[in-house]
């Protein structure tokens, strides 16, 4: 079947499941009902009903929206996401340093209003299309500034710096970061006139994208930092959920679990101990077998993914006892042997694991693929992007997951009503 024919078929499927599953209507109701996301044990709840996540990453949104001439890309992405039943987007609330293009924070405590208005637009458009957002405060990596930029700011001001890992321990750097958090939380949206900390369109805050700390592979330093920063977030905003941004690597407090880490990788994080902190509301895991085990066969990578996902589900079911979100997963077309059917099958397998857990009352209750893009964004392509109009079979896989999770939510609501 031609690509055009497949897109027509996928669009028809979307129409059917929206009509019969009320997927889009539920997303809009959740966003506009004025309720903040909550957790009950290992479930998310919204407006008193279970809330299952099928969504996407789109780190580029604030950047694109900071230029009014390119805001249509953001609108298009949310429109497509809503059409396919997606209900949560994860994106950046940072772009640090004067050396970056369209910075949000060119220097500590100094903000670019045009870029902040771009983030205002992202949140406003998300609400319009019934999508919630997870906003991350800083990057572990140097893309868009990240903790490396915070360290450089401190170095420029005479602080004795030994490595980028001083981000987690230097008092001046931690002060810069806390100030950024407070600035974001108390921002009054120029479009909606609602403070970010008061806006239920925001599903959750994320402390840092994929934190790593080679200076202390035991995980103790990162644990201390998360404890301090989580308390700071909650002191300003006690309404929104908070997560760390962890990839899921096991640490020193659970040596028997380190067998599940890819290869011998240790990055100074501790999945179980850190997520047990009372001010962390839910756990996250990322899945990049094609990067972490790049020298292994596809069969070995698939086996790793199965063990990785099931280990984290089990730990969140029995030890952490909080919801688990697969916050990043994807398959790159730049790797040898790639064909589209492999990506579709990979998405389908992750989605199946999520649905199976959710349908059995388990902790894994949602996933966000990396990453959604609008058409004609070639400079942002990283090999993992999904342009729905150009990938009708993948779009269908995504739509089917939305329909299944929405049906699960509806069936649980009926059961609650009957009891």
Automatic annotation (TrEMBL):
Gene3D superfamilies: Glycosidases. GO terms for molecular function: mannan endo-1,4-beta-mannosidase activity. Its main location: secreted. Residues 36-371 form the Glycoside hydrolase family domain. One of its GO terms (cellular component) is extracellular region. Keywords: Glycosidase, Hydrolase, Secreted, Signal. The keyword Membrane does not apply. Residues 1-23 form the signal peptide. It is an enzyme of class 3 (hydrolase). Transmembrane segments: none annotated. It comes from the Eukaryota. One of its GO terms (biological process) is polysaccharide catabolic process. Its EC number is 3.2.1.78. It is found in: Secreted. It catalyses: Random hydrolysis of (1->4)-beta-D-mannosidic linkages in mannans, galactomannans and glucomannans. Belongs to the glycosyl hydrolase 5 (cellulase A) family. This is mannan endo-1,4-beta-mannosidase. It comes from Prunus armeniaca.
